[in-house]
Amino acid sequence: MHRLTKLYIENFKAFGSGQHIPLAPITLVYGPNSEGKSALLEALLLMAQSLHHPQSLQVLMVNGSLVSLRHFHTLIHQHNLSLPLKLGVFLQLDSESSKDSLQSVLARHDTEVGMVWEFQWDNTHEVILHRKTDIYVGDAVNPLLRIHAPDSPERTVQSSGDHHTGRMHEFIFPPKAHFEPEVPKAWAAEQHGTIPLTMFRLWQSLTERALNKWKPVVEELQRWVNLIHANPTLAAKNLRNLVEHYQGDIYEPFLDDPVAIFELGDPETIKSFAKVLRDSIDILSDPDPVHHLMWWGQYFSLYEAGDPWELRRKNQFLWSPDFSDLWYHFRSAIGTNYDNLPWGGAVLRILLSDWEYRMKMHKSQNESQNEGLWNDGEVLFELMNPKDLVDTLNGAVETIASHISFIGPMRQRFSSIVTNAEEDAVSVGLSGEQTIEILRRHPDKLDELNEALMQMGINYTLRIEPVLDSDLSMLSKVILHDNILDSDVAMDQLGYGISQILPIITEILAVDQKIVLVQQPELHIHPRLQAELGSIFAKGIAHNQYIIETHSENLLLRLRRLIRIGQLSPESISVIYVQKTPDGSQCSAIRLDQQGNFLDPWPSGFFEEGFDELFGGNL
């Protein structure tokens, strides 16, 4: 399962300046009332319903099935409609895709990736506009790509289509969007200057993957070098025939220059072209990942104003260019070394275009031999292809959005008689309304629930039985058996505590590969049971991730104890304290050591009430 590692918010409700909030398998959010704790969960719910529910015509779905925030002016910081709203998520990818995919490489190196969206209120059209998307790889501060949305509200209308053209893709990469070419160049320069070991190893893997794919290209270029060396006259003739063959098929100003084409037939001229080929081979065989990192960053800023390929690269950089665009990777490495041979790049593009065509024809004739090497629509020359990267993040964020569940602070009381639902539930729901239905359909989960209740010291066993009357077959009876008194008790005759804890335990046991958001799990629950609930959450992180808004000290004490006895690692817990300041709410991360002790000071005024009540000063 993809795991959320950070939440980014800026100008959202009580939060002003941008903040990265670290998330772990279990994240506990503490703080005084009305300071912004709930806003963290609401930000995730807002993103989830905006990405996952295509029925909205607004690019940001303010009101939906997960959360209702009324209007943009109620969620923007200090109700200032001139401020930009930024929301984003960072995550670590799983490695379930093919071994050679970009996702698999990023997952193997535990590379954090992220997306941050910027929105703005448009007073003229009274809609929320998506301004830009920043994409991050291995660096949460400097974006690797920046995609600008067009300056019109047309992108607020939902487009239909599949995974690549539907809502998710439009949200990340709207129609008529363009990218900022200097951003990847700046990112590469930043990584080059202070490249950490983890990033070096990632780029080393990407380089090895690219070099492996480039081997057939190297062999083709070497074949031409050998031909030029052995018989420059024949090489010049063959190359000139090839260029003339592609006139009209490939856009190159060079093809409209008869003098340049005539010179191409000169054996001495063709020897100069051999240097282009040899240097290209050197680049494609260079094992140094730092070199390729810099060349990759420069590749995006090669297109100058007036360049016939500038518009294509700027506006369609996510769509697969021809394999012949490999020349631009060479240019990024070679620089201005070939001013005396201005047509060298054009000829190389034609040579590689012809070779790509022959390879595709060969693939169609012998599919199995080339399986995994040549795929139509896949760019093979990029170390980290922007389209692959965006599609990988697109799928990952879509998965995250569709796997968020939310349990609110007030779970409903259960009746002794419930109506059976026609369809299975995927979550207990906001108020726990689907709890009984999940347990009815999954008896194994009901058994696990009863076992958990026993382990927590709750001396009741839950049973769900059909109503025997044939006219009432759509109903079920919910029965609690008191194990101490050995008698059945009607569900609605018990207090609130059991109805508050059952949905939480059921969600932990029944759902899989989910990000579960929970508000105030401790409500109406005895302090000892709050601690026991910590143990239940800890067992659940093998399958799910939990983000919990709470005031419970007992819950945290149990998790700290589990760290101390070695059942949890400190990295599996993130403790966040939210506190309001004159500049807006701020989140402080409180780290834990191997003994479960705090590495950072706990903010004053929280978990100190008992001490102050006994030994404090004036009332």
UniProtKB/TrEMBL annotation:
Residues 452-556 form the ATPase AAA-type core domain. GO terms for biological process: double-strand break repair. Residues 6-46 form the Rad50/SbcC-type AAA domain. InterPro entries: ATPase_AAA_core, Bact_Antivir_Def_Nuclease, DUF3696, P-loop_NTPase, Rad50/SbcC_AAA. Gene3D superfamilies: P-loop containing nucleotide triphosphate hydrolases. One of its GO terms (molecular function) is ATP hydrolysis activity. Residues 568-614 form the DUF3696 domain. This is AAA domain-containing protein. The lineage of its organism: Bacteria, Bacillati, Bacillota, Clostridia, Eubacteriales.
